[in-house]
Amino acid sequence: MGQILPFTKQVLKNLFSEPATTQYPFVQREYPERTRGHVDINKDQCILCGMCMRSCPPGAITVDRAGKTWTINRFDCIQCGYCTEKCPKKCLSITPGYQEPGPEKYTYSVEVPYEPPKPAAKPVAAAAPAGGVKPEA
Ligand code: SF4
Ligand code: SF4
Fold first, then answer.
1. Where are the domains of the chain?
2. pLDDT of 130 higher than 80
3. Which of ligand 1's atoms lies nearest the C-alpha of 52?
4. Domain 4Fe-4S ferredoxin-type spans what residues (predicted)?
5. Residue whose C-alpha is closest to residue 105's, from 63, 71, 80, 55
């Protein structure tokens, strides 16, 4: 009898309390603010420097300077956050929401509007006088 009483208490508590699980996918889970979900880019700030690509352990990011694209394979990303720390322009962030599973790996790519600065024009040499330089007397 002494062993049944705590058991009955637990049964009654479970009967009248909310379930610990949610009815996914009918009820979507709200992620906590600091969830390491997926990497997002603010493409307007990107300077195509490639630091994120070089710092990514699984090589999930590709930066194509000539083609002006930033690409991530979310299936390879391990959400370590190194790219967000290394980006000199702080245009990468990890936001809540995970990559949905799928039968094939695919990449997400954005076109980056960055225009590299033009090289400074060289100063024009002073024009030589017509007829060349006269020898000194
Ligand atoms: S979070 Fe980590 S694994 Fe994912 S893209 Fe950034 S550096 Fe690569
Ligand atoms: S996202 Fe940041 S680190 Fe990556 S290429 Fe752009 S500016 Fe560089």
1. 29-111
2. no
3. 7
4. 37-66, 68-97
5. 71
